[in-house]
Design goal:
309 residues, TIM Barrel, two-stranded antiparallel ribbon, binds NADP nicotinamide-adenine-dinucleotide phosphate, Aldo/ket_reductase_CS, oxidoreductase activity, acting on the CH-OH group of donors, NAD or NADP as acceptor, oxidoreductase, AKR
Length: 309
Amino acid sequence: MGVPSHFKLNTGASIPAIGLGTWKSEPGEVRKAVAFALKDGYRHIDAALIYGNEKEVGEGIRDSGIPRKDIFITSKLWNTHQDDAKAGLQRTLDDLGTDYLDLYLIHWPVRLVANETSDLLPTNPDGSRSVDRSWDQSKTWKQMEELYKSGKVKAVGVANWSVPYLEELSKTWTVVPAVNQVELHPLLPQHKLRKYCANKGILLEAYSPFGSTGAPIMSNADIKRIAEEKKVSPATILLSYHVNKGVVVLPKSVTESRISSNKNAVELSASEVEALDKLAEGGNAKRLNTPLWGFDLGFDDWYGAAKDT
Ligand SMILES: NC(=O)c1ccc[n+]([C@@H]2O[C@H](COP(=O)([O-])OP(=O)(O)OC[C@H]3O[C@@H](n4cnc5c(N)ncnc54)[C@H](OP(=O)(O)O)[C@@H]3O)[C@@H](O)[C@H]2O)c1
């Protein structure tokens, strides 16, 4: 039995169930982390232009000696490139030092308009983010479809898309997104989104599986109890939760011992999965990644940030 090592995308391609996250992996550490992970058996790297470290990620990939064709590389179209996806992709390809991606995602269903304050995180004179709420996301998706047809990206998908946003896009898409990468863990199980994506053939990817920096969900009392009962670490429980549910999981670490142990998911029983599925009930749900542009994106469980930005 055991747990699956790979899942299938709706393109027919195979994707490794566990990929190394690279957000907040600093230049100087990320090169070593990526090279170590690949030598240690990882074959899936999750990158993004906005992480500001794709050059080092590319160096780490080359340092590993693993052939490009054996590695599944994902990157993401940043918000300020939504009006020119081709240029956004080229920047990423140049930085990574590769001529194709295995998966390219729209990072957020939000266009930011670059201005003299910044080309990536621009602000308005009043300090708010320069979000263009009038931008039609189907225009961005159309460009993604063209990139897919050009062969420069082997699959296209989205990140941070709620059911209403996917439903709107479905009216015009000619290529169904292969993936929706969202925050997902037992405290934010997103059951409705999961059902919707399963029905459409969109594979979910879980980001921030440990609750992001400092891994706060690992110290949740219920997670610790389930881990103790199973005689594995809380990290293993949090990773295995996704793999057992047919979801890709993207743990980030720059620490070799953690990178190594994070690739070992274990099989969970139906009752263990059910217990994890219910942890967020009764007002315990918690979203940890809440950038201010995230409001109004149709998630019914958006917490934390101020509404007027
Ligand atoms: N699409 C999006 O909008 C989006 C948003 C957020 C994240 N992501 C992707 O998802 C990836 C993962 O999410 P994340 O970076 O937010 O956080 P995460 O993977 O939930 O947690 C990372 C934190 O956990 C620590 N950690 C890792 N393994 C551990 C272990 N076995 N024991 C104890 N601590 C451990 C790491 O420390 P060390 O590194 O110091 O070891 C780091 O502080 C990102 O890197 C990125 O690729 C995508």
